[in-house]
C-alpha cells in the first residue's frame, strides 16, 4: 500500500493507465469509398499483434464490410497501440490527483451527460465497473451505452496521463521546464480541482446544494427523428472538418516549400 | 475426421427413442432442455484420457466431473444430443460434452480454459466479471437461437476489453453453448433416421472406386455410362469430371439398393472384435480384416455393441504361438470336417479361411456352424466360469482344454474352445487391472505416509520451538529473581544508612528492626 501525504502531490511512476487493468481505449473512424465505419472499444496492449489482424478480420466478416477495411482497421489499431507503447517506459508525474471527468455521449437513441470527479492516483480504479454500475443504476436499456461510457472515461484518463508524461519530459529538458510544465498541466488538463480549498478547514466534503445540478447525470432518450437529425448534422460537420483539414494540408505543403 | 464421425454416430445412434421430449419453452424464459448422452457403453476409444486436450474439436465426450446438484435436468439415458425438431426455436440444444453448464455455477472446465479470470492476477478480472460476460452472451444467443451471434454483436454491448470478451466468446462457441444449432452442422447429422440410413447405405458395399479419377467414395448413388463402361461417383458426375467425349445424358443413375439393412452376422462381428483388439483404432486395417464392411460400418457397429454381456472380447489373437501350434491340430480336424460337409459351407468359408489368423478362421467357422445361440451360450458359460479359473493357472487350464478339445467331439469343440479363449482374454485383462490397482494402492499408501511424516516433522519443530521459549523464560525468571535480590540489598543498605545518623544508641534496635525487614 502506498501512502501519499497530501503535500507530496507529485508522484513519479512508470507510465500506465491509472486503472486496475492497463487497457487502452481505441477509436476507429475509417472512411473508404464512402463507407464509414466508426467504432470504439478497449484493448489490452499486452495482447499479441496477431490479435489485431484477427480482430479486424472478424469484425469485417461479422459486419459484412468490404474487405478493404481489414487493412485499414488493423493499421488504425496498430497506430494507436504503438503510440501507447511509445509512452510506456517513461516516467510520469501525477500532479493533480482528482480530475473532473465529463461524459457527453450519444449512443443510438440515448444521450448521456454527466460529470464527476476521478482520482487519478488510484491505480486500482475501474472505468468498466463504473460504466456497468452507471447503466444499472440509471436503468439504461441500450446495452451499447456501457462500453461507450467506459471508453470515454478511458480516453480522458489517457489524455491526462499522456500529458503528465510530456510534462515530465519537459522538466528534464531544462530548469525553466518545471515552470512551463506547471502552466502546461494547468491549462491543458482543464480545470483542476484545488484540493486544499475543497477539503480545507473551511470546506466540507459535502457538496454545496447549488452545485448539485452540475454533477447530476442526465440520461435522455431521443426519438428516431431527432436521432436522424443529429446524425445528419454530425455528418455535415465531419465533412466540413475534413475539407478544412485538406485545405490546411495543401496550404502547408504549398507554403512550406516556398 | 473419423473422431467426428464417431462422436456424431455415437450421439445419434442411440437405439432407444429419439430426441428428448422438448418442453416448449416460452422464448423469454431462460430454461433449456439440454440433452446428455449417457454413454452406457463407453467404447474406450471415445473417452480420450487426456484432460488437457481442451481444444478438441467436435463433440468428443471429455471425462466429465460429476454433474453438479444445480444442474437443471435429470440425465436421460435414452436421449441424445440430436435435434428435436429443426423448426422449433424454443428448444435449445447443446452438445453432450457441455452438459456441465449451469447458470449458477462456474465449472472447472471454465476455470481451466479461461484462467485469466480466476487466478486473481488482475483486480478487475474475476469470476463475477466472467459470469457477467458468459451469461450475457448466452442469453443474447438464446433470444434468437436460429441466428448465429457474432463477436461484434456481443462486444459492442459488453463493457470490458476486447481480448477477454473474445476469449470467452470463442470458448462458448467452441463448446457449443452458443451458435450451436444442429442445422448448422453438415446435413448428415440432421436426423437420426437420415444418419442411420446413410450409414447403412454405406455399409452395403465396400468403398467403390470411381471410374474416372480413381478415388473411393462411399456414396450410395452412382452414375454408370454404358458406352464407356465407367462408373462415376455422384460428385464427379455433378461436377462434370468426365472425359470430354461424354455428356451428362450418357449417364444413367444407378442406385445402390436400399432394402437390405443387413445385420452384422456373427462372423463379421467376431472379425471386427478380433481386429479391433489387434489393431486398436486403425479402422482401415480393421475394415480390411472384416472384409465385407467399410471403415464406417465397423465403427458404427462397434459403437452399437453392448459390451460385456453377449459378446466377449475377441479370441485367439493374443494367445501367442504356443497355442497356435496346438490349435492347428484342431483346425485341421475341423477343416476336414468342413470339407466333408459340402460345398455351400465351404464357399462361405473360403474368405474366412484365408484370414490371417487360423484360429480366427476356426472359431468363426465354428460359431457359424453352431449358430449364434450356442455361441452366445458358450460365451456366457465362459464368463461365469472365469472367476473360478485362477489367472496364473489360466493358461495351463487352457492347454488342457485345448487338448481335450482336440480329442473331443465336434460339438464340444466349439464351446470349449470359445470358452477357454474367452476366459484367457478376460483373465489377462483381469490380471492387468489387478496389477494396476495394486500400484495405485501402493501409491496412495506412500502418499499418505509422506503426509504423515511431514506433519510429524511439523509437530517436532513446534516442540523444539516451545522448548526454546521455555528455556528463555526460565532464564528471564532467574534474572528477575536476581534483580529482586539486588533490590532488597539496596533497600537494606539504604535503610541502614538512614537509621545510623539518627541515633547510635538505637542502632542495636535498628539493626534488629532492620533484620526483620524481609
From TrEMBL, chain A:
<keyword id="KW-0805">Transcription regulation</keyword>
<dbReference type="Pfam" id="PF04855">
    <property type="entry name" value="SNF5"/>
</dbReference>
<protein>
    <recommendedName>
        <fullName>Bushy growth protein</fullName>
    </recommendedName>
</protein>
<comment type="similarity">
    <text>Belongs to the SNF5 family.</text>
</comment>
<dbReference type="GO" id="GO:0006338">
    <property type="term" value="P:chromatin remodeling"/>
</dbReference>
<dbReference type="GO" id="GO:0000228">
    <property type="term" value="C:nuclear chromosome"/>
</dbReference>
<keyword id="KW-0539">Nucleus</keyword>
<dbReference type="InterPro" id="IPR006939">
    <property type="entry name" value="SNF5"/>
</dbReference>
<keyword id="KW-0804">Transcription</keyword>
UniProtKB/TrEMBL annotation, chain B:
<feature type="domain" description="Myb-like">
    <location>
        <begin position="256"/>
        <end position="306"/>
    </location>
</feature>
<dbReference type="InterPro" id="IPR001005">
    <property type="entry name" value="SANT/Myb"/>
</dbReference>
<dbReference type="Pfam" id="PF00249">
    <property type="entry name" value="Myb_DNA-binding"/>
</dbReference>
<dbReference type="GO" id="GO:0003677">
    <property type="term" value="F:DNA binding"/>
</dbReference>
<protein>
    <recommendedName>
        <fullName>SWI/SNF complex subunit SWI3B</fullName>
    </recommendedName>
</protein>
<dbReference type="GO" id="GO:0005634">
    <property type="term" value="C:nucleus"/>
</dbReference>
<feature type="compositionally biased region" description="Polar residues">
    <location>
        <begin position="47"/>
        <end position="56"/>
    </location>
</feature>
<dbReference type="InterPro" id="IPR017884">
    <property type="entry name" value="SANT_dom"/>
</dbReference>
<feature type="region of interest" description="Disordered">
    <location>
        <begin position="1"/>
        <end position="85"/>
    </location>
</feature>
<dbReference type="InterPro" id="IPR009057">
    <property type="entry name" value="Homeodomain-like_sf"/>
</dbReference>
<keyword id="KW-0805">Transcription regulation</keyword>
<keyword id="KW-0539">Nucleus</keyword>
<keyword id="KW-0804">Transcription</keyword>
<keyword id="KW-0238">DNA-binding</keyword>
<feature type="domain" description="SANT">
    <location>
        <begin position="259"/>
        <end position="310"/>
    </location>
</feature>
<dbReference type="InterPro" id="IPR032451">
    <property type="entry name" value="SMARCC_C"/>
</dbReference>
<dbReference type="InterPro" id="IPR007526">
    <property type="entry name" value="SWIRM"/>
</dbReference>
<dbReference type="Pfam" id="PF04433">
    <property type="entry name" value="SWIRM"/>
</dbReference>
<feature type="domain" description="SWIRM">
    <location>
        <begin position="92"/>
        <end position="189"/>
    </location>
</feature>
<dbReference type="Pfam" id="PF16495">
    <property type="entry name" value="SWIRM-assoc_1"/>
</dbReference>
<dbReference type="InterPro" id="IPR036388">
    <property type="entry name" value="WH-like_DNA-bd_sf"/>
</dbReference>
